[in-house]
Amino acid sequence: MRKQIAAANWKMNLSHQEADSLLDQLLASQHHLSSNQAVILAVPAIYIPLAVQKLNGKSNIFVAAQNCHQKSNGAYTGEIAASMYASVGVHHIILGHSERREFFAESDSLLAEKTEAVLAIGSTPIFCCGEPLSIREAETQNSFVEAQLKNALFQLSADQIVKVVIAYEPIWAIGSGKTATSEQAQEIHAYIRSVFAAKYGQNIADQISILYGGSVKAANAKEIFSQPDVDGGLVGGASLIATEFAAIINALKP
Ligand code: 13P
To answer: Where are the domains of the chain?
Structure first.
């Protein structure tokens, strides 16, 4: 059974005091997670020690980073290596978010390097893919996303790919309030799984969690997560509101 995951991406939001308070509110909402469910909180790097300390001892709740550098160490001013995150207890790292691709010019080949760097130290990449509006309007989203996956991930072995979490986030749905319909999400998630099945076999593909991201909120999470190939969500704006994110966690499949 692949994991069902509610992942929060706080992006570049909240003061330390606000982060502290949101973590407290989330902890107070008392989630009963099954062994098949996980909650992942990708907080700004500077709040990671705070989050790790607050979530200490909570099972199936993990702190994540929003990015890392592809090298293990060196003269890269301002950057953070995957191993540094691991050394403070963070073993999940979002890679290739569309905002990093767009504003920081992250290419598929760079993301291939980052993915390997994260896997090499035994951590879990949460690899983002997804098409812009122009591609969706041209109805070529499947081949666009397939190319993102092939270019960045197909150098991985079967043992490695099962350790990667995929987040499909159509750019036109991010922060727009316009979510993909559950049918649209299911259709492309099934396609993504078929891409992995063709390369690695169905058994491997069936083990890969594929999250949906893009304007997920309490009101639509259950409908989207109920789709057979949607294994939870990567949530931006709604993850900054404790009651919203708590409801999103509760919408996960058991
Ligand atoms: P929103 O949930 O704010 O649309 O953001 C989605 C996202 O980019 C999560 O990584």
So the answer is: 4-250
Q: From CA 81, how far away is CA 228, in angstroms rounded?
A: 35
CA of 215 to the centre of ligand 1 (A): 6
Residue 215 CB–ligand 1 contact under 6 Å: yes
CA–CA distance, 83 with 71 (Å, rounded to integer): 9
What whole-number distance in Å separates Cα of residue 202 and Cα of residue 217?
Answer: 31
Q: The whole model's pTM is what?
A: 0.97
- Tens place of pLDDT for every residue, the chain, 254 residues? 899 999 999 999 999 999 999 999 999 987 789 999 999 999 999 999 999 999 998 999 999 999 999 999 999 999 999 999 999 999 999 999 999 999 999 999 999 999 999 999 999 999 999 999 999 999 999 999 999 999 999 999 999 999 999 999 999 999 888 888 999 999 999 999 999 999 999 999 999 999 999 999 999 999 999 999 999 999 999 999 999 999 999 999 99
What is the C-alpha end-to-end distance of the chain, expressed in Å? 10
Selecting among 99, 106, 131, 169, the annotated active-site residue is 169
Domain 4-250, CATH among 3.30.1050.10, 3.40.50.10540, 2.160.10.10, 3.20.20.70: 3.20.20.70
Provide the token pair at 100. 């990093």
% helix / strand / coil in the chain, to the nearest 5? Answer: 45, 15, 40
